[in-house]
Amino acid sequence: MKEIRTRFAPSPTGFLHVGGVYTALFSYS
Length: 29
Fold this sequence. Notes:
Blueprint: H1 2-7, H2 16-28
Protein name: tRNA ligase
Organism: Candidatus Shapirobacteria bacterium CG07_land_8_20_14_0_80_39_12
Keywords: Aminoacyl-tRNA synthetase, ATP-binding, Ligase, Nucleotide-binding
């Protein structure tokens, strides 16, 4: 699962995959 998180920009806070998912959703939007 770390690979998925690495795909997106690593958040400074490290919000697990949840942060990555939210970022992806906002980016796609």
